[in-house]
Design a protein that fits this description.
- The protein has 6 helices and 6 strands; from the N terminus they run βαβαβααββααβ.
- It has 172 residues and is of the alpha/beta class.
- Strands 2-1-3-4-6-5 form a 6-stranded mixed β-sheet, with helices on both faces.
Length: 172
């Protein structure tokens, strides 16, 4: 029997490393892509991943979020440019996959209304008037547009999850 296989993009961060350990400990074969493999903003770094592999699911855990704005002093423009390039590279990779898969992208904590839920279009910007952060709004928009694009076709399915109860070392 062939082992079930998962791909985690952003496997060195808080969420990605915990997903890695979880899936490895539950018997999955886990492939990873992280900054350790190269510059994820350059699509050439993504080419180490085989597009002929049969990934049961892909977890995208690499977007820059609010911590980079507040605690690393990145501008909204930097955040948008960085996330846009990551999302474009993810889109290119997904389009080249030969087997059907499920994609899970993790949205910013700014949309975390409950423990763990799938973000629906009608509540995507539910708290935006409180937070009014252009970089995060744009990132959510780019991710949501990618998910809608993927779901328009029958080959792959995609969802955005928000991780309202998971906090990394930089979360205040």
């Amino acid at each position: 029997m062939k082992a079930r296989q998962i791909l985690i993009i952003g496997s060195r961060g808080f969420l990605g490393s915990n997903l890695f350990n979880y899936f490895l400990n539950t018997g999955y074969k886990v492939k990873t892509l992280s900054r350790e493999n190269g510059d994820l903003l350059e699509f050439n770094s993504w080419k180490i991943l085989s597009t002929s592999e049969n990934y049961e699911a892909i977890y995208f855990c690499v977007e820059k979020t609010g911590n980079q704005l507040f605690y690393e002093n990145n501008s909204a423009v930097d955040l948008i440019d960085y996330n846009k390039q990551l999302i474009n590279n993810l889109d290119k990779f997904i389009n080249r996959l030969q087997s059907r898969t499920k994609l899970f992208v993790f949205g910013s904590l700014w949309t975390a209304f409950s423990k763990l839920s799938e973000i629906r279009e009608h509540d995507l910007f539910k708290n935006e008037t409180e937070n009014n952060l252009l970089g995060l709004t744009m990132t959510k928009t780019l991710l949501f547009e990618l998910v809608k694009k993927i779901n328009r076709f029958n080959k792959h399915k995609a969802s955005i999850l928000t991780t309202g109860t998971l906090y990394g070392s930089n979360d205040k």
